[in-house]
């Protein structure tokens, strides 16, 4: 009798074990199989791993000092039809290629156009900031809805649009609108291109969009072309006979903000082969200095780049008469990108500059070493008049 009980209990345990295994297999019917990672050379904020029946998109630290990673399962319609999975294992499940998308930064627009999928864009917060003529036509036709502001999206309109995915960005991960969207079942993916520390790293996020549209090969080709042109311009700049001294930024209230030596802006100036006067500073983000410190170091600078939002010499002088004491002001050698804008006022640099650092670098080489690019026309920067 005891022997029969032991056999019966053993049988029950075995059945329970195998049922659990079968359930586990049913919930995670996504065999590892062979895998390959999308080649990422510069960006650190995302990774894409392709498996036999699915792809995994990982977002790393999407805002400064973030220690959270996000995992998104990417499935084609065919893969989704034959696979089961545990939704709790992922921050979002996305069917690719995406057919309807909402993005929240102008820096996202060029990637859609480069991949020729801008017609999938159905909503954006602050459409007037978009400068691209191609996307503006979609806005004017009513194909892209206005969604208010990134900090407080019009979730009622967004949920009505029912996009496949929302591409967001955040400074700390606390966005009530995004939480509302997530709870409705729409995946929100943080894009951290703005956190990257080099121009080419920012541009490489086109591969992030490539994965969402099942166009990874095309995204690789696009980025490779941008990288090649950037490195070509960098190599050309090394032929310059001199390295002009460069000042950047301007005052906001009583503080002068300018790029630190570790910033993408400083990297661009370094690759343009100039003497950026704060190239050796190691602080993260912007430097915050008083006027006297900046004037003492940069009063004789040859070129002044990006003096905040001031769009003319007169506007600079009205803001602070002390600006007129800089040699760059006296020589009218100040350049800004704020005067290059779309028809509704969107600054082109804030849209295309991130995706096309090769063009930004060529602009800087043209400004600081004009003899190296005699026939080149500036794309973003203009001399202040």
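Sequence proposed for the structure above (385 residues):
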């Amino acid at each position: 009798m005891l022997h029969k009980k032991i056999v019966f209990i053993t049988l029950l345990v075995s059945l329970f074990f195998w049922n659990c295994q079968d359930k586990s297999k049913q919930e995670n019917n996504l065999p590892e199989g062979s895998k390959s990672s999308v080649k990422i050379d510069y960006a650190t904020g995302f990774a894409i791993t392709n498996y036999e029946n699915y792809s995994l998109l990982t977002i790393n630290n999407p805002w400064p000092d973030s220690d959270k990673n996000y995992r998104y399962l990417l499935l084609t319609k065919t893969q989704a039809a034959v696979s089961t999975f545990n939704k709790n294992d992922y921050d979002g499940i996305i069917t690719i290629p995406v057919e309807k998308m909402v993005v929240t930064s102008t820096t996202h627009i060029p990637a859609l156009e480069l991949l020729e999928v801008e017609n999938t864009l159905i909503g954006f917060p602050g459409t007037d900031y978009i400068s691209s003529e191609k996307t503006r036509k979609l806005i004017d036709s009513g194909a892209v809805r206005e969604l208010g502001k990134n900090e407080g999206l019009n979730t009622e309109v967004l949920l009505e649009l029912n996009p496949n995915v929302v591409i967001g960005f955040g400074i700390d991960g606390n966005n009530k609108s995004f939480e509302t969207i997530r709870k409705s079942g729409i995946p929100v993916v943080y894009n951290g291109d703005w956190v990257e520390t080099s121009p080419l790293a920012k541009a490489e996020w086109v591969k992030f969009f490539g994965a969402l549209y099942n166009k990874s090969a095309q995204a690789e080709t696009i980025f490779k072309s941008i990288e090649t042109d950037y490195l070509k311009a960098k190599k050309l700049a090394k032929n310059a006979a001199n390295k002009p001294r460069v000042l950047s930024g301007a005052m906001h209230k009583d503080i002068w903000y300018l790029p630190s030596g570790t910033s993408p802006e400083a990297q661009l100036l370094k690759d343009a082969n100039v003497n950026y006067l704060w190239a050796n500073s190691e602080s993260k983000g912007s430097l915050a200095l008083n006027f006297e410190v900046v004037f003492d170091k940069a009063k004789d600078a040859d070129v002044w780049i990006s003096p905040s939002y001031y769009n003319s010499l007169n506007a600079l002088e009205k803001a602070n008469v002390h600006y007129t004491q800089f040699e760059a002001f006296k020589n009218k050698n100040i350049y800004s990108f704020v005067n290059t804008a779309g028809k509704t006022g969107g600054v082109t640099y804030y849209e295309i500059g991130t995706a096309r650092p090769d063009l930004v670098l060529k602009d800087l080489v043209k400004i600081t070493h004009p003899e190296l690019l005699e026939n080149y026309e500036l794309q973003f920067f203009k001399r202040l008049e």
